[in-house]
Amino acid sequence: MAGKRLKAAQATIKPEASYSLDEAVKLVRANAKAKFDETVEIAMNLGIDPRHADQMVRGTVQLPKGTGKTMRVAVFARGAKAEEAAAAGADIVGAEDLAEKVGKGEIDFDRCIATPDMMGVVGRLGKVLGPRGLMPNPKLGTVSADVAQAVRSVKSGQVEFRAEKAGIVHAGIGKASFPEDALVENVKAFVGAVVRAKPTGVKGAFVRKVTLASTMAPGVKLELGSLLGGE
Prior knowledge:
With 231 residues, the protein is an alpha/beta fold.
């Protein structure tokens, strides 16, 4: 059944064609026919070599229409800051007790936030959190004295992005059930954030290819000219 669905979806997309953002979103939504609400994902092939530290692309973006995913947030904080985090909607709050659980591999969260004074404790968990992309980082707003705002940002649709070894950045930017205009808005916000994160040392075209797809359907290539507005 899945094979038939995939073939039917592939038949609606011209392999060599590039589509406007509006057309691509229509196609992706039309082809998302699984029995669950598929995630709409974006993949951006960038003209960078992430092996060079000065060509690393990383950051966060607040998707205006949210992700459609419930994010579980853990916060390392003590005292009043721990109370602020819990009041803002953090799912797990702790200090040394939380560090002990994480050290044992108990990681029941999607994002990790820490107050600056807790980084001595959190730093020792680098080998556990680092490979999972969960290590708190001041540049990403996940090391912050304002834990309440950090929690609210994550809960309301903040997405992290980071270039992989092949120079590809990808992320979920919503659900197939989202209205078309909401997905269009989220794509524009995500692409804009990645373009703004362009390293100064990059020569030539920064964005080489952008593809949009839902979880169970083939990708749709986006036409770069209108999407980037002359990057």
